[in-house]
Amino acid sequence: MAAISGSLPLVFNAPRRGMPPRHLADLDAEARKEAVKELGLPGFRADQLARQYYGRLESDPEKMTDLPAAMRDQVGSALFPQLLTVVRHVVCDAGQTRKTLWRANDSTLLESVLMRYPDRATLCISSQAGCGMACPFCATGQAGLTRNLSTAEIVDQVRAAAAALRDGEVEGGPGRLSNIVFMGMGEPLANYKRVVAAVRRITSATPDGLGISQRAVTVSTVGLAPAIRKLADEELSVRLAVSLHTPDDELRDTLVPVNNRWPVAEVLDAARYYADKSGRRVSIEYALIRDVNDQPWRADMLGKKLHKALGPLVHVNLIPLNPTPGSKWDASPKPVEREFVRRVQAQGVSCTVRDTRGQEIAAACGQLAAEN
């Protein structure tokens, strides 16, 4: 970990593999123009290629019909290397939830989950392969960190899901991808530079990005306080979600080991800074674990601390734990869950239970990769 509070830790465990080759989605507008110039192509090809990728959701130069056939191999090798290959899709919820296991070109495995609702379609994406945060109840945390994902590997999860919805591959007919949550494998703020670049690609208008609203993007973190403050200063309007899981430092030191570095009070202070800078309400993620963090007094403490730190600028998202195979952790009983919600709300803090999806297809982060 970084040694100085206030510095930004980007990698907690050294990744074991190198980054993939350069891809168009790694490049901003100026870098795209330079890349096209390096290939000896006229400048207008930069926007043309970007419109194919971001606008038409096309990643195969052989299908880019406005590109001369003689250029396609050259452009493909230089700007469209194959980043992710589908290992398998698994579906549930009457076909409305689809989890994808991807293999990167160095055989790294990662996951994304597409969830279709009546009023929206949400994609949960990964920002790292594995995770170095070591939270003991999380399948990804148990696996450890393999490496950071590149900007393009993050963005391409989104492009592929948008294309799948457009083409009617998900139950319910053709549709549009509307929401993105960085809640898949990894700690997004531990891959800070690439995640922020990916957010900008995802939310910029064509030809610079996929055109999804920043307000429909959520970035999750276990509480890297300096990085939360840095993200606030980016002046984005994405939602911040903080995986708190308990309001007391004693237990959180065990459940979320990074708490030894940045305790609850410091995390909530950074969250308030983010809320004030962005104007967005912060989401507090709380996985409810039977006989571990579901006691009534912890609900009272959670409500009091959040009300004091964030006032109306907070919402608690209570998550029924999705146990991983062989884990000692289990979900709290429904009566306990209901009482927890009631007590948090009694402190003047908004609190709801997340609609769980995909339990029968190992949709908790890291489960599908662990099986492979």
Tags for this model:
372 residues; alpha/beta; DNA polymerase, domain 1; TIM Barrel; 2 domains; 10-stranded mixed sheet; 12 strands; 35% helix; disordered N terminus
Distance N to C terminus: 29 Å
Overall mean pLDDT stands at: 91
| CATH fold-level topology of the largest domain | TIM Barrel
| CATH level 1 class label of the largest domain | Alpha Beta
Label the CATH architecture of the largest domain: Alpha-Beta Barrel
By secondary-structure content and strand pairing, the structural class works out as: alpha/beta
Q: Please tally the helical runs, counting DSSP H or I stretches of 4 or more residues.
A: 12
Shape: elongated
| Beta-strand residue fraction | 15-25%
Number of domains: 2
Q: Roughly how many Å is the radius of gyration? A: 21 Å
Q: In CATH, what is the homologous superfamily of the largest domain?
A: Aldolase class I
How many strand segments? 12
Strand order, sheet with most strands: 1-2-3-4-7-8-9-10-11-12
Report what the structure shows:
By secondary structure, the protein is α/β, with parallel strands linked by helices. The chain folds into 2 domains: 24-79, DNA polymerase, domain 1, CATH 1.10.150; 84-371, Aldolase class I (TIM Barrel, Alpha-Beta Barrel). It contains 12 helices and 12 strands. Strands 1-2-3-4-7-8-9-10-11-12 form a 10-stranded mixed sheet. It has a two-stranded antiparallel sheet with strand order 5-6. α1 (29-38) packs across α2 (44-55) and α5 packs parallel to α6.
